[in-house]
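Quick check before the chapter quiz. The format below is the same one you will see on the exam, so make sure you can read both the input and the output lines.
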Amino acid sequence: MRPYNTFETNNVKFLVDKQVQFATIQITETGLKKSILDATAPVRAYFKEKGVHDYDVQCQGPDHKRVIDTYILTEGSRHLTKTSLYRPITKNGDPRLWVNKVRNVEFLRANDIFALIAHNGFLYAVNLSTVNIPIVFQSPIDTPLKDLILEILRAKTSVSDELLGLIRDKMTDWMPAEILADTGIGRTVETILGIEMNASQFPDYKGIELKSHREASRVRNTLFTQSPEWEISKLKSGRAIVDKYGYIPEGYDHKSLHVTLSANRPNPQGLGLLIQPKIGLLEADEFSMVPLENGTFRKIDEVAAWHLIKLHERLLTKHRETFWIDAETRVDNGREYFRCTKILHTKNPIPSQFDVLLDQGQITVDFLLCRRSGGDTYSFKIKSAARSLLFPESDIYNL
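Here is the expected output.
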């Protein structure tokens, strides 16, 4: 998709500020002529997160087409239509979509960018290139677009108020943690809220991610886990990384690799991070342990890689809205007890800051590889003091 112009950027910023989640798609000239658009990775992820559609399980061919009721919203009106979601038999079944009647809406031009908003079982399509969303919202005249934004905003506020109330009611008195471990408090918080343990890429509680940690600790906070993209990596698996860089820890009988990678300097295994903004990659590489005259370290070999844009998508999906819960703890007779004392409520991380904080060593990556108790994990973590740089919109609730 092409970069946003100033008008579109203002629209996107306004929707983000109003906590409206959406996916964007460009109406290409070819797509407009053929009534066909690619369902890009961000669109597919958004549809899956919102429960609209999962292209991964959709079979190819017209018999398996999914149709969603859709409203096309202009500055003052709405038009009911249908959106087709399908995978054709040809071209490997690449995911497609088309909003019917979109070509009939006034002011539509090739290369316009639309926002697709999923809400209460419907899709809403808004032309970010022509509709002045801030002006529509600030107008005293009620319109379908203004009503939609207000409804979503009220629902968001209602969910965060509901979650805050549950934490205040159930977790401000001393209670036992389920286990005496790093994850003990987080697991107990989720159990109390009725959240099952899972490896979902999506937020925990009705769109709000939960992150719990001991207030006395200054540990890094996990943002998300994300495996390297093996197709663009030199080493093609966690096993291959362990074979080359692993070690046998005390008490183990097999190689493992439990290390932190930073862009500041290589770790004892010579592994570190390299941000390559010009080609849009984050690399895990092997470096010389001897610094150069300018203080940097010479890259010796490549190990693994991620596309930065995919990490941005992961960040935005996981942390559109987050409760960072501080807990006071004590240990009695070998059992840990805790109570929640403070919550930092963040919204709308800035993807470009993610890259900056990686480069500064404020965000690091933990490799936990070849663990017999579970699969390999690649955890992106942020230092607590740096959260305000990634999440500028925040509120603090003292419990």
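If your answer matched, good. The chain has a mean pLDDT of 88.
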